Fold this sequence. Notes:
Layout: E1 2-7, E2 16-20, E3 41-45, E4 49-53, H1 54-65, E5 73-75, H2 80-91, H3 94-98, E6 105-107, E7 110-112, H4 117-136, E8 141-143
Antiparallel strand pairs: 1-4, 1-8, 2-3, 5-8, 6-7
Helix pairs in contact: 2-4
Amino acid sequence: xxxxxxxxxxxxxxxxxxxxxxxxxxxxxxxxxxxxxxxxxxxxxxxxxxxxxxxxxxxxxxxxxxxxxxxxxxxxxxxxxxxxxxxxxxxxxxxxxxxxxxxxxxxxxxxxxxxxxxxxxxxxxxxxxxxxxxxxxxxxxxxx
Length: 144
């Protein structure tokens, strides 16, 4: 399972571009391709989004929101400046990021992958980009 964080695109249509799909490696599109539906051309949006495992997304969201998040939720456009400030604080305070790292755990057939400071910093930057995009376009940010 995973959680995707993105801006809601109800207020405007994001800019899209078309690019050659990866299924065109032999010059012919695969008819059952998930990305292009057999067209050979994939439509890509400029609206940023990030997808993380449930555990990692909830860790990053909890750091930003300063409360335990649900598996789905919304940050209203009016609250974006507050969360941008929080991300700036987190990115400049290694101690805060360090408190949220965890080691990889292996219990027979169950693997719980760890999370390090570099991963958290990268994900905070991606969420920051989503918040800035949403702020610029008058949108909310949601995750599910």
